[in-house]
Amino acid sequence: MVNLAVAVFMVLGGIGQFFPSIGIQNVIVGVYVIIFGLATGMLEFRIPPQVAKYASFMFSFIGRGVFYIFIGSIVVGTNWWKSTAGTIVGIIGIGYCVLEYIPSIEPPANMRDADAGWGAEQV
């Protein structure tokens, strides 16, 4: 549920990049953040094999946490809707980074399924 909420805030933050002024930088950042938000939401339902191979950082708490912090820092802006969405995404990212160092917390099933580890590909 948390990842779906983060995906929604990413998409809203991406849409917020278009307001109040539209510039080429805002459009590019907004489109990327919307794509990342949609991809994050998709990972909760289906994990494409390419994601497990090329974006394996999304299957660990620390990797996903740093990714959320990065996206949150991109979304934060001068308007309240950008600041709110970016802050929520960033705080959840910090929470994921903290969870990496708590051994009693197990990753969710969708983070374990594709986590075969480095070098586990069949030859």
UniProtKB/TrEMBL annotation:
Gene Ontology cellular component terms for the protein in this record: Golgi membrane
Location of this chain's protein in the cell: Membrane
One Pfam family it belongs to: COPI_assoc
Leader sequence residues: none
Record keyword Membrane present: yes
Source organism, top-level taxon: Eukaryota
Protein name: Golgi apparatus membrane protein tvp15
